[in-house]
Amino acid sequence: MKKGIIILAAATLGLAACNKFEKGEGDMTYKIYKSEGKAKIQEGDFVKLNGIQVIETKSNGDSTLVNTYDNERPAFFPISKSMFKGDMVAALKLLGEGDSATFKLNLDSMAKYSGQPKPTGTKDNYATFTVKIEKVLHKAANEPDSTFEKKKRAFFETEYKALIAKNKASEEGKIKKYVSDNNLKTTTSASGLQYVIEAAGNSERAALTDTVMVDYTGQFTNKKGDGKINVFDTSNAKIAKEAGIFSPMAQYAARPLVLGQLAPGFIEGVQLIGVGGKIKIVIPSKLGYGENGGGPINPFTPLVFDIELKGIKKGSAVAQMPAPAMAPATK
């Protein structure tokens, strides 16, 4: 874990007692860990940051709602007018580029002014945000909005291109590290898919037009800050709850998926087993979301799936379209 993440994670675990926090405006309290002494963020600025949002629940202790380090995707935050005293804008105005801090913000106020419902099962009425300000694009006094909008677009495009280049350069290393760390004895196919067949299943194989019933869990190759596997989608309720991605609206059971509509790597993996079979596949981005990414998936991101094939429903013999570069439904 990187040093910056350790500092931020320590704060979210409550290692800094509440009585050491300073009083900000409204109901906000804060603790600044590092200050570079640079110009403070002002209304109109555009900020790149990494952060962790945590709430304390009545039954399960701390619950992480957002962690940009786990997603390997920093957030970009336009500094608009404050919606209420002690909101996130007010908090960020205490910081400058390179600074890090923890803020406690009022959940009732956040729900009222954001239009988003307050999380259920909270132990107290505060959300804890631990942030690191990576870069700040300052808007000059009297600078026309149209001029600054162009600067913002150029700033974002530059940062995003750097993220893509970093992901592309590190993808092969991520795959090798995941395989090594998990002591996997994989087989690599001609396409570049790596897999471990845990159970072969019967002799039946699915065609692209078939609907397959699969239990699966999709994860990133990097672990989360708490050391747990970094799950982004699953058909297993227990795993979803442990990963903090459980949704009451989701169907947690074997899911029907038209095979030909899935990622090439997922298709290939499913076709290596029969009904009753289990397989772990490591999908390079060229067989997944590719250079564009999608949803929670960054460009050039390798994915890992654990798949159990529960059944095959034969499809009609219609013309088969090329499978789009997408994985099963993600959150």
UniProtKB/TrEMBL annotation:
PROSITE patterns: FKBP_PPIASE, PROKAR_LIPOPROTEIN. InterPro entries: PPIase_dom_sf, PPIase_FKBP_dom. Keywords: Isomerase, Rotamase. Residues 209-313 form the PPIase FKBP-type domain. Its EC number is 5.2.1.8. It catalyses: [protein]-peptidylproline (omega=180) = [protein]-peptidylproline (omega=0). Coiled coil: none annotated. GO terms for molecular function: peptidyl-prolyl cis-trans isomerase activity. Pfam families: FKBP_C. Belongs to the FKBP-type PPIase family. PANTHER family: 39 KDA FK506-BINDING NUCLEAR PROTEIN, FKBP-TYPE PEPTIDYL-PROLYL CIS-TRANS ISOMERASE FKPA. This is peptidylprolyl isomerase. It comes from Pedobacter yonginense.
